[in-house]
Amino acid sequence: MKTQVGIIGAGPAGLLLSHLLHLQGIESILIENRSRTYIESRVRAGVLEQGTVNTLNEAGVGERMRKEGLLHHGIELSFHNKRHRINMHELTDGRAITVYGQQEVVKDLVKARLVAGGQLLFEVEDVSVHNLDSNQPKIRFRKDGEEQEIACDFIGGCDGFHGICRPSIPAGVLQVFERVYPFGWLGILAQSKPPSEELIYCHHERGFALFSMRTPEITRLYIQCTPDEDIANWPDDRIWHELELRLGADESIQLQEGKILQKGVTPMRSFVVEPMQYGRLFLAGDAAHIVPPTGAKGMNLAVADIRHLSRALGGYYQNNRTDLLEQYSATCLRRVWRSEHFSWWMTALLHRFPDYTPFQQRLQLSELEYVTSSRAASTSLAENYVGLPMN
Ligand code: APR
Ligand code: PHB
């Protein structure tokens, strides 16, 4: 097989890349090791920045998101069992976020690619990349028991944190920056009305909790737990009880119990590699960087990377430009590091750290009070949360 851009991974990064390339008349083949059903039902993050929403709309894949996505103008921070609203809309000249599940974005993109006759190959095995520092890199894999090879001009490494692209770059090329947190999130999807119309981030002495949603009937909840937590320790009753405690529910807010549809534990880490490129392999999304989910930046960063990569590849094919490709990594890394800082900061602000001294715990509460009472401090949170207009 032969194509212009070979793409590995059908997450938001890979799918959006293949779609944006198609809109510029550039051909790609996308391979994914899971099934279509699997990627379309995997529950992940759900907060879209305004810039992400704009990108999806401009790419013509925003129709369902505009109908079903929930527009939010603020978030709440809870501490000492009291909620404080951050009015993002007012603090950021009218910007907002949209709550729309990542797997819904994935479904919309898969559909758009298939309608356009795009080549998506699911359930491939043993993927490997070769000749990355030549003008014709290759992707090898097995599909239905047969060995296959794609010769391409470029490879989009969009295969997530556990993919094969990043580890295929020769040793010594990448610099790795990493921080692993001493906790994880137990994520729950439940058939119940969310306790509030907006997201509630709770600081609590028992640990962090987050109340989010997917629809007015489906709530998405997270509880801080140990990074290697055994899900068997969390029967449904314990989950609801713990959420009730951490929400500090009073008469103004009600936590409604409902059928738990899904639960899973995610460890938390911050991770960046520099540069995000080696030869003709370009890394994008989780393949190049991970943020802890507290700042809701993961999918937005993946989309921002792809905006740059598709523009750079467009410049190459349409005008023979190589400058945008050369600048790709440095351009992306500016936003990546801003989001890394913000996500680390939100994580440090809201979680219970097992090794924190009483002195550090007091500092954390003081910062929460400052962030929710000073206009300057809440503006800083709000503008990062809705997404800075960086190019
Ligand atoms: N070959 C083919 N596909 C692979 C391989 C491989 N060797 N390894 C992994 N994949 C696939 C995964 O199955 C997955 O579908 O690559 C895809 C990577 O997608 P994501 O993990 O969703 O990563 P990305 O597209 O960068 O999106 C980032 O995902 O983890 C969330 O919070 C994160 O929202 C962020 C988003
Ligand atoms: C989610 O709804 O899944 C969600 C919301 C906000 C976050 C993380 C996850 O910070």
What are its keywords?
binds P-hydroxybenzoic acid; binds adenosine-5-diphosphoribose; 11 helices; eight-stranded mixed sheet; six-stranded mixed sheet; 20 strands; FAD/NAD(P)-binding domain; D-Amino Acid Oxidase, Chain A, domain 2; 2 domains; alpha+beta; 391 residues; 28% strand; 36% helix
Describe the structure.
36% of the residues lie in helices and 28% in strands. The two termini are 35 Å apart. It has 2 domains: 5-75 and 97-177 and 269-349, FAD/NAD(P)-binding domain, CATH 3.50.50; 183-268 and 356-386, 2-Layer Sandwich (D-Amino Acid Oxidase, Chain A, domain 2), CATH 3.30.9. It is of the alpha+beta class and 391 residues long. The protein binds adenosine-5-diphosphoribose and P-hydroxybenzoic acid. Adenosine-5-diphosphoribose binds next to helix 1 and helix 8.
In short:
The chain is of the alpha+beta class and 391 residues long. It has two domains: 5-75 and 97-177 and 269-349, FAD/NAD(P)-binding domain; 183-268 and 356-386, 2-Layer Sandwich (D-Amino Acid Oxidase, Chain A, domain 2), CATH 3.30.9.
